[in-house]
Amino acid sequence: MTNPQLSRLVRLNPFAHDSPIVTLLAAVTTLLTVFGLFMVLSASSVSSGLQNDGNFFAAAFMQAASAAIGAVLCVTIARFPITFWSAGRNYFLLLGAGLQAAVLLVGSSYGGNKNWLDLGFVSIQPSEFLKLAIIVWLASWIHDNDHMIDLPLQYWRVPALWIGVPTLMVALGGDLGTTVILVMIILGMLAFAGMPSRTIWALAAIGTAMALALMNVGGSGRGSRFMSWIQGCAPQDYETVCWQTMHGLWALSSGGLFGLGSGSSRAKWSWLPHADSDYIFAIIGEELGMIGAIALIVLFLVLAVILIRLVREFPQPLTRVLIGGVFVWIVGQGFVNIAVVLNLLPVLGVPLPFISSGGSSLLANFLAIGVVISCVRHEERYG
Question: For 41, which of 60, 229, 234, 365 could close a Cys bridge (C-beta 3.0–4.6 Å)?
Fold first, then answer.
């Protein structure tokens, strides 16, 4: 290859001048996304055909379009200076909170959750973007007020208001899963910031009590599902609260070591609710077997190692705490989703990042990676 051709390839590669770990982060993100696109195509084909007049590829096309838009946004915002995020933190959170308020007023409900906003040509889930807005706001605030990290909670009235109100709005919409993830993100960021462990445990206890109180909000049957998870599924619960759990486990177990083959799932034929979203890991296990499921888990573990390495390499509070928040969000939510499918946790209804169908979730995940790269690039160049 001649030097002009090599120079042209370097210019076309947006990560050409980055450190190897940033390039690895982009590569793992790409692998997860491509893996997810293939699985959404398979898992959604039956339901998509039934809902779209025989168009078996409608959901997959929408996911692919979201991936393309998300990739472009990721590469674009990765070039933004770190000051853009700290200076605009209030605006980002106000926008996210405003959209979440609109959900409470005029949003769409599904399964006892009011978490969708219909814009006419597309529906969005503002709570997915609210996760990133809270991460940016809290990381920026801690960076500016690092001296307060050891102070008692009564001195944290400002952040409690800014991040507590939007989280409460998500909870009022009945979205327990997203509320749990938001609380995990906030507690994780405080841990990365160095808050005393006794304070974090106290906040975790309060959050757990609130989650238990939300179990029966909206009559969605979460309390019954939780009790069936605690006590085990009784025969009379099979066709109600245990249907999704049992069919998810059966799908996983039927895959064996090597799976039934790509596209060969039986559970997706209306036996497993949300086969392409919340329970897509069950379809992965059924079609690709234990080998495919472990391969996906390994990708998430590699992503976890990358993000933790970045946290360790860049001690500045803004970068460290922000990357820590993204780590808890994407990796933590990923393993929560997998734990739910394995029946290690009660059904929460959270997507598998980069894998589950859903444009809002995928776009938000790409934006999060873009913000991480933006911060890392600033730290590498200016320290």
Answer: 60
* Residue that the structure tokens 């790269």 belong to: 373
- Residue showing tokens 């050891």: 150
The label of the residue with tokens 């990290």 reads 149
Query: Over 118-153, what HEC string results?
Result: ECCCCEECHHHHHHHHHHHHHHHHHHHCHHHCCCCH
Number of structural domains in the chain: 1
Cα 153 from Cα 222, distance rounded (Å): 31
Contact 57, 41 (CB under 8 A): yes
> Given its phi and psi angles, is residue 124 left (phi above 0), alpha (psi -120 to 50 degrees) or beta?
beta
| In the predicted structure, residue 231 carries a pLDDT above the cut 80 | no
Dist. CA 271–CA 93, nearest whole Å:
39
Residue 323 pLDDT more than 50? yes
335: tokens are: 């393993």
Nearest-5° angle of CA 21, CA 26, CA 29? 120
Q: Which residue has the tokens 């996911």?
A: 63
- In whole angstroms, give the CA distance from residue 111 to residue 375: 38
Residue 13 identity (one-letter amino acid): N
Q: How many other CB atoms are there within 10 angstroms of residue 362's CB atom?
A: 29
What confidence tens digit (pLDDT) does each residue in 326-367 have? Answer: 999 999 999 999 999 999 998 888 999 999 998 999 999 999
State which amino acid sits at residue 289. G
117 bridge partner residues: 124
Structure tokens belonging to residue 25: 């982060």
Instruction: Kindly state whether residue 57 falls inside one of the protein's structural domains.
Output: yes
Return the structure tokens found at 329.
Answer: 């969000």
2 belongs to a structural domain: no
On whether residue 9 sits in a domain, the answer given is: no
Q: How far apart are CA 264 and CA 50, in angstroms?
A: 18
In a domain, 11, yes or no: no
Tokens standing for residue 69: 């838009």
pLDDT at 354: 96
